[in-house]
C-alpha cells in the first residue's frame, strides 16, 4: 500500500501512528487501509470523510469529551466516539445515520445554549470550529434559551499582552489544557470544578501571573474564540498566508505568516515545519511587533564625526559616501586597515555577499561574524575531532534517546521549542544528566521531570569535568572498543586513554576543584556510557570559556569512546543561540575560511573562488573581531562594515570596544535600529526585517529553511541589495536580481550545498545539508558509516584553570545567561510586549553571599570586576551556588559586558563570558559607566532625530 | 597589537598542547594553529618577539614552534 499523503491543511482529528502494520476497514462504504493504532476518526479523514468533532485535533491525544464524533460500528453496540476508538481489521463504520444526526444535534444544542450568539461580531467569525460544527450537524434551533444558568457573564482575562481568554465562549473541550501539557510541557492549565462549574483555570491566577510561558499552543488549539490573539481581535481574520522562518533562535521554527494585505495578523507555526512540527515559543509567535516599531530607522544617514548629529540622505549619497571613505582609508592605511562583521541574524545570502565583498573587493580576509563570541569553539572542536563544524543530529533524534546529557545549556529558556520536544521524551522516561553551575528549570522545576544527576560544577571547570567522566569510562572498562577500532584513529585514542586514566584525572582528584561529589560524577559517567542511546546537548556554557574549544573536543571524545555517534538518538548537539549561527559560519564568514569551511590558504579552493569572482584573493587568514578591535585600539584598523551585529552590547569589555570604535574613521552600521554600535558609527544603512526579504536561515540541525518576503522593505531594499550597491560603488558590481541567484552561486561553489536551491526548498519545505548528488534530500544524521574526516580523532584535553581567578578583591564568580522572553541583546524583544516578563536584567545572588554583604531582595548592587563596574538589582536565590552570581544581558543600560573581560578561548578567541571574578556590594546609585552611558545614548538618539541642516557632513 | 595580549594568547595555545606525548608533533601543531588562524601582522609580531627580542614570558614549546615552523 502506498504511504498516506498527508495534507497539512486537513485536521485528521487524532495523531498519526508509527506502526508498520496496516489495517483495512470500511467507512461509509469506502474501503481504506491505514496504519494500525490510528483512530477511526483519523482513518475516516484519510478516506475523505470528516466526522464532526470539537474536542479532538490531530496535534493532541484524543480525550473523548464532546461526544460529537460518535459513529456506529456494525456488530458493536452503542455509539462509540470515533476519536478514542482505534481502527481494527474488517470494521464496517457508519458516520452518518439518522440516529447519529439526532444525537449530534442534541449535543450541539446544549453547547450553543450556553454560548453567546454574537457570531457576526465575534473575532473568529468564519474561523470557528463551533460555528462549523453547528453547520455540519444541521443545527437549526436552540430550545433552551438563555433563561437557565449560563456562563455568559464571565469576565475576560486580558492580562497576557498577546492573547485574550474569554471564558464565556469556552466549551470546556480541554484542548488548551492538553496543548499546554502535551505540546508545550508546561502544565499551566487545568479544568477546575465539575459539571456546570467546570472551567479552564491557569492555577487560579491570571495568565500573566501564572506558570504560563505564552507559547500560544493553547490559543492555536482552541476551537472557539475563547483563547484568541489580540491582533486577530484588532485586525480581523487573515486572508492569505506565506510560510517563512522565525528570525530569533537556532531552533529555526517554520511559521505561516497570516496576512491581510501587507499587514501581519498572526504568526502560526507551520504544522509540518521540520524543526517545530506546529509548535512555537512566545518570541516567534508573538514578538514580531518590533518590525514596525517607531524606533526603526528607514532612511540612510551619514555624519563626519560621532559628535555630530546625523544627516538623513538618499541611498545613493549614503552608499557613495561609505565607498569613498573606505577607499580613502584603504589608500591611506592599506587594505589591512578595513574589514567587516556579519551576523547570525543575517540570511545565508546576506552573509555570503558580505564576505564576498570583503574578500574580493576590500581585498582582505578581515571578515568575522558574531559566532566568534558564541559558537566558534564548536566550529573548531567538531571539525578537529569529527571533521565537520556542525551538530550531528536532527532535533527529532531526541525522541530515540535513552539518556540525555545537557552541558552548559538551558533549553527551556534558550531553545524553547526543542525543549518541549525534549521534555516529551523525558516524560516518556529518558534519563537526564545536567552539568550546570546553576539550577536550570529542567533540574527540578519542570512538571514531571527531574534530573537524575545535576553536576553543579564551578564555572570554568568544564574540562576537568569532561576528563573526570572520561576517566571513569576508561578505567571502568566502559569504552566501546570495537567502535573505536573501526571508526577512529587508534593512536589518538590510545594517547587520550592513557591521559584520562591518570590518577589526577579521576573524579576523586578533581572533586574539590569542581565542587561536585566524586561518586555523583562516577554514576553520571556510567549512566551516559551504559544507559542505552545517549545524546549530548550543549550550549554557550561550554563554549564561552578560555577552554571552550577543549571542552567541545572533550565532548566529542566522550561520544566517540562510547559509540554514541552516527545513528538516531545519540550524537553531539550544539544548541545554537541565534537563528543563523550555523548558516553564517557555513557561508564563509570566518576570517580563515571560504564558504563550506575551506581554508583560505588552500590553493584549489582559492583558485575556484578567484575564477568565479574574477578577483585575486588573499591566502592569509584575516583578523577576528577581537583582533580588529585590538588593532583599532592601537590605531591600525580604521574602517568597519558591520551588518546586523551590535558588538558594543554583545562583545566583552564594553569600554575596550567603544574605545576601539572611537578610534576608527569610518564605521558603517546596517541595522533596523540605532543600536549601541550605531552610536559610534559614521554611516547608517537602514536594514530590512525578516518579513521584508527573501533568503534562507540554517538552524542548529543544519536545516536550511526559506525566509520569504511578505511585505515591501520599509527601508526600500533587502539587505543583500544594500551590500551589492556598496560593492558596485566600490567598482565591483554583483549581478543578482533575487536572493535565489545568490543561493545558486553558493551551491555552485560549495560541495555540501550543491543540491540546494530555492526551488528545492519550495518543494521540500526545508533541507538539511550536506545536500548534494549523493544526498539529494539532505542528511538528517551525520557520520553514519564514517566520520566526515574519515577516522574520528581523539584529543588530549588538559584542564588549565582560567587566569580569571577569584581573590580577596574579587571573591565571586559572575556567570551570564539568557531567559525565554528576551533575545540576545534585546534590540528586537525589548521593542515588543515581551518586556511584560522581563523588564530589566537582575543579578542572582546566593542567600549566603547576600547575607554576608547585607544585600536584600531588590537592592541595588554594584558589581565590580577587573574590567569595569555596573549596577543591577539583586534577587536572592539558591538557584546559584554560594560564590557565584548570575545575570542576563538583554538590556544595554545594564552594562553586563562592562564587567566581562578580554579573556578568551585559546583556539578561537571566543570570549570567556561565563567566568568573571567580581565583588558585589550594596550601592545607592548607578555606576559611573551607567551615568555616562545615559547621557551619551540620549545625545546619540537625539542626533538621529535631528534634521539635516544641523549636520556637518559635506 | 599589544604584545602582552599576543603572548597570553600564544601561551594558551602552548598550554593546550603541553600534555601531548609527542612533543615535536605538538610543536608542529602549535605552528600550524598560528599559521592557520592568526593574521599575518600578528604572526610577524610574535615571530619578531621570539627571534629578535628573545621571547621572554612565552611558553617554551611555543618559542620552539615559532622558530621552526612559523610562516611569515
Ligand atoms: S500559552 Fe503555552 S504555556 Fe501558556 S497556557 Fe497556553 S499552552 Fe500553556
Ligand atoms: S479555552 Fe478553548 S480550548 Fe480551552 S477548553 Fe475552552 S474552548 Fe476548549
Ligand atoms: S525563538 Fe526559537 S523556539 Fe521560539 S519560535 Fe523562534 S525559532 Fe522557534
Ligand atoms: S471529538 Fe471525539 S469526543 Fe470530542
UniProtKB/TrEMBL annotation, chain A:
Residue ranges constituting the 4Fe-4S ferredoxin-type domain according to the UniProt record: 161-192, 203-232
InterPro entries: 2Fe-2S_ferredoxin-like_sf, 2Fe-2S_ferredoxin-type, 4Fe4S_Fe-S-bd, 4Fe4S_Fe_S_CS, Asp_de-COase-like_dom_sf, Formate_Dh-H_N, Formate_DH_asu, MoPterin_dinucl-bd_dom
Record keywords: 2Fe-2S, 4Fe-4S, Iron, Iron-sulfur, Metal-binding, Oxidoreductase, Repeat
Highest taxon, organism lineage: Bacteria
PROSITE patterns: 2FE2S_FER_2 (PS51085), 4FE4S_FER_1 (PS00198), 4FE4S_FER_2 (PS51379), 4FE4S_HC3 (PS51839), 4FE4S_MOW_BIS_MGD (PS51669), MOLYBDOPTERIN_PROK_3 (PS00932)
All copies of domain 4Fe-4S His(Cys)3-ligated-type, residue ranges: 99-138
Boundaries of every 2Fe-2S ferredoxin-type domain copy: 21-99
Residue ranges occupied by any 4Fe-4S Mo/W bis-MGD-type domain in the UniProt entry: 239-295
CDD domains: fer2, MopB_CT_Fdh-Nap-like, MopB_Formate-Dh-H
Example of a GO cellular component annotation carried by this entry: oxidoreductase complex
UniProt GO MF annotations: 2 iron, 2 sulfur cluster binding; 4 iron, 4 sulfur cluster binding; formate dehydrogenase (NAD+) activity; metal ion binding; molybdopterin cofactor binding; NADH dehydrogenase activity
One GO biological process term: respiratory electron transport chain
Family: Belongs to the complex I 75 kDa subunit family.
Protein name per the record: Formate dehydrogenase subunit alpha
The organism of origin for this protein: Methylotenera oryzisoli
Upper taxonomic lineage: Bacteria, Pseudomonadati, Pseudomonadota, Betaproteobacteria, Nitrosomonadales
TrEMBL record, chain B:
Top-level taxon: Bacteria
Family matches, as InterPro entries: Formate_DH_dsu
Protein known as: Formate dehydrogenase
UniProt organism field: Methylotenera oryzisoli
Amino acid at each position: 500500500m502506498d504511504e498516506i499523503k498527508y495534507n497539512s491543511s486537513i485536521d485528521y482529528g487524532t495523531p498519526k501512528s508509527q506502526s508498520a502494520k496496516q489495517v483495512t476497514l470500511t467507512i461509509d462504504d469506502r474501503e481504506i487501509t491505514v496504519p494500525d493504532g490510528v483512530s477511526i476518526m483519523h482513518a475516516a479523514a484519510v478516506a475523505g470523510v470528516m466526522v464532526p468533532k470539537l474536542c479532538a485535533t490531530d496535534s493532541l491525544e484524543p480525550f473523548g469529551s464532546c461526544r460529537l464524533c460518535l459513529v456506529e460500528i456494525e456488530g458493536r453496540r452503542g455509539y462509540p466516539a470515533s476519536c478514542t476508538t482505534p481502527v481494527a481489521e474488517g470494521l464496517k463504520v457508519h458516520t452518518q445515520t439518522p440516529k447519529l444526526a439526532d444525537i449530534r444535534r442534541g449535543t450541539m444544542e446544549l453547547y450553543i445554549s450556553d454560548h453567546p450568539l454574537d457570531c457576526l461580531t465575534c473575532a473568529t467569525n468564519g474561523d470557528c470550529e463551533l460555528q462549523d460544527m453547528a453547520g455540519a450537524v444541521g443545527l437549526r434551533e436552540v430550545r433552551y434559551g438563555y433563561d437557565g444558568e449560563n456562563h455568559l457573564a464571565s469576565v475576560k482575562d486580558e492580562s497576557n499582552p498577546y492573547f485574550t481568554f474569554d471564558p464565556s465562549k469556552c466549551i470546556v473541550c480541554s484542548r488548551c489544557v492538553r496543548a499546554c501539557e502535551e505540546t508545550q510541557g508546561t502544565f499551566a492549565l487545568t479544568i477546575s470544578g465539575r459539571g456546570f462549574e467546570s472551567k479552564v483555570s491557569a492555577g487560579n491566577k491570571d495568565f500573566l501571573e501564572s506558570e504560563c510561558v505564552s507559547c500560544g499552543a493553547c490559543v492555536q488549539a482552541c476551537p472557539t474564540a475563547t483563547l484568541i490573539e489580540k491582533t486577530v481581535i484588532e485586525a480581523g481574520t487573515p486572508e492569505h498566508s506565506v510560510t517563512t522562518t522565525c528570525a530569533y533562535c537556532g531552533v529555526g521554527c517554520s511559521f505561516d505568516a497570516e496576512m491581510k494585505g501587507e499587514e501581519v495578523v498572526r504568526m502560526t507555526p507551520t504544522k509540518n515545519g521540520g524543526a517545530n512540527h506546529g509548535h512555537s515559543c512566545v518570541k516567534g509567535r508573538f514578538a514580531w511587533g518590533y518590525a514596525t516599531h517607531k524606533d526603526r530607522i528607514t532612511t540612510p544617514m551619514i555624519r563626519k564625526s560621532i559628535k555630530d548629529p546625523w544627516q538623513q540622505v538618499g541611498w545613493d549619497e549614503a552608499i557613495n559616501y561609505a565607498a569613498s571613505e573606505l577607499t580613502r582609508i584603504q589608500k591611506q592605511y592599506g587594505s589591512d586597515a578595513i574589514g567587516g562583521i556579519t551576523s547570525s541574524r543575517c540570511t545565508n545570502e546576506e552573509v555570503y555577499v558580505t564576505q564576498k565583498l570583503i574578500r574580493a573587493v576590500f581585498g582582505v580576509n578581515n571578515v568575522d561574524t558574531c559566532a566568534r563570541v558564541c559558537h566558534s569553539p564548536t566550529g573548531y572542536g567538531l571539525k578537529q575531532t569529527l571533521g565537520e563544524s556542525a551538530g550531528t543530529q536532527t532535533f527529532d533524534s531526541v525522541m530515540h534517546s535513552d539518556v540525555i546529557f545537557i552541558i552548559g545549556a538551558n533549553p527551556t529558556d534558550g531553545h524553547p521549542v526543542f525543549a518541549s520536544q525534549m521534555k516529551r521524551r523525558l516524560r516518556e522516561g529518558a534519563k537526564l544528566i545536567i552539568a550546570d553551575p546553576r539550577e536550570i528549570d529542567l533540574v527540578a522545576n519542570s512538571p514531571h521531570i527531574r534530573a537524575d544527576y545535576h553536576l553543579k560544577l564551578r564555572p570554568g571547570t568544564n574540562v576537568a569535568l569532561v576528563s573526570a567522566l572520561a576517566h571513569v569510562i576508561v578505567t571502568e572498562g566502559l569504552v566501546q572498543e570495537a567502535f573505536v577500532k573501526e571508526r577512529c584513529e587508534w593512536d589518538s585514542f590510545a594517547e587520550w586513554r592513557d591521559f584520562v586514566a591518570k590518577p589526577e584525572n579521576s573524579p576523586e582528584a578533581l572533586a574539590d576543584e569542581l565542587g561536585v561529589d566524586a561518586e555523583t560524577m562516577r554514576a553520571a559517567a556510567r549512566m551516559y556510557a551504559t544507559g542505552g542511546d545517549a545524546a549530548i546537548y550543549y550550549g554557550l556554557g561550554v563554549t564561552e570559556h578560555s577552554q571552550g574549544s577543549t571542552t567541545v573536543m572533550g565532548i566529542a571524545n566522550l561520544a566517540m569512546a562510547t559509540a554514541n555517534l552516527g545513528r538516531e538518538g545519540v550524537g553531539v548537539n550544539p544548541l545554537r543561540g541565534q537563528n543563523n549561527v550555523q548558516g553564517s559560519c557555513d557561508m564563509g564568514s570566518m576570517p580563515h575560511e571560504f564558504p563550506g569551511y575551506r581554508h583560505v590558504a588552500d590553493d584549489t579552493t582559492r583558485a575556484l573562488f578567484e575564477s568565479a569572482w574574477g578577483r585575486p584573493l588573499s591566502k592569509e587568514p584575516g583578523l577576528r573581531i577581537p583582533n580588529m578591535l585590538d588593532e583599532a585600539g592601537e590605531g591600525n584598523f580604521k574602517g568597519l562594515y558591520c551588518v546586523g551585529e551590535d558588538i558594543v552590547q554583545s562583545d566583552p569589555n564594553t569600554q575596550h570596544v567603544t574605545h576601539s570604535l572611537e578610534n576608527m574613521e569610518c564605521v558603517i552600521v546596517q541595522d533596523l535600529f540605532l543600536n549601541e554600535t550605531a552610536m559610534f558609527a559614521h554611516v547608517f544603512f537602514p536594514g530590512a526585517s525578516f518579513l521584508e526579504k527573501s533568503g534562507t536561515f540554517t538552524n542548529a540541525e543544519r536545516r536550511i529553511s526559506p525566509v520569504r518576503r511578505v511585505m515591501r522593505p520599509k527601508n526600500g531594499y533587502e539587505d543583500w541589495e544594500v551590500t551589492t550597491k556598496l560593492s558596485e560603488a566600490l567598482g565591483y558590481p554583483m549581478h543578482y536580481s533575487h536572493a535565489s541567484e545568490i543561493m545558486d552561486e553558493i551551491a555552485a561553489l560549495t560541495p555540501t550545498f550543491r543540491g540546494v536551491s530555492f526551488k528545492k526548498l519550495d518543494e521540500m519545505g526545508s533541507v538539511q545539508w550536506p545536500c548534494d548528488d549523493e544526498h539529494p534530500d539532505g542528511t538528517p544524521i551525520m557520520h553514519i558509516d564514517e566520520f566526515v574526516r574519515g577516522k574520528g580523532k581523539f584529543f588530549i584535553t588538559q584542564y588549565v584553570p582560567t587566569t580569571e581567578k577569584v581573590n580577596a578583591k574579587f571573591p565571586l564568580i559572575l556567570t551570564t545567561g539568557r531567559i525565554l522572553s528576551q533575545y540576545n541583546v534585546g534590540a528586537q524583544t525589548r521593542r515588543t510586549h515581551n518586556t511584560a516578563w522581563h523588564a530589566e536584567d537582575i543579578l542572582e545572588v546566593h542567600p549566603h553571599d547576600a547575607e554576608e554583604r547585607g544585600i536584600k531582595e531588590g537592592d541595588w548592587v554594584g558589581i565590580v570586576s577587573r574590567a569595569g563596574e555596573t549596577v543591577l538589582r539583586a534577587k536572592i536565590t539558591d538557584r546559584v551556588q554560594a560564590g557565584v552570581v548570575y545575570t542576563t544581558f538583554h538590556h544595554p543600560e545594564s552594562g553586563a559586558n562592562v564587567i566581562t573581560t578580554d579573556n578568551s578561548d585559546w583556539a578561537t578567541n571566543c570570549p570567556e563570558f561565563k567566568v568573571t571574578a567580581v565583588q558585589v556590594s550594596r550601592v545607592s546609585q548607578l555606576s559611573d559607566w551607567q551615568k555616562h552611558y545615559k547621557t551619551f545614548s540620549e545625545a546619540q538618539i537625539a542626533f538621529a532625530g535631528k534634521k539635516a541642516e544641523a549636520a556637518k557632513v559635506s | 597589537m599589544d604584545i602582552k595580549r599576543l603572548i597570553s594568547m600564544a601561551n594558551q595555545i602552548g598550554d593546550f598542547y603541553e600534555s601531548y606525548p609527542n612533543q615535536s608533533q605538538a610543536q608542529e601543531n602549535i605552528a600550524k594553529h598560528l599559521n592557520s588562524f592568526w593574521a599575518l601582522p600578528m604572526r610577524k609580531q610574535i615571530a619578531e618577539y621570539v627571534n629578535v627580542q628573545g621571547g621572554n614570558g612565552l611558553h617554551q614549546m611555543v618559542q620552539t614552534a615559532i622558530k621552526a615552523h612559523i610562516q611569515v
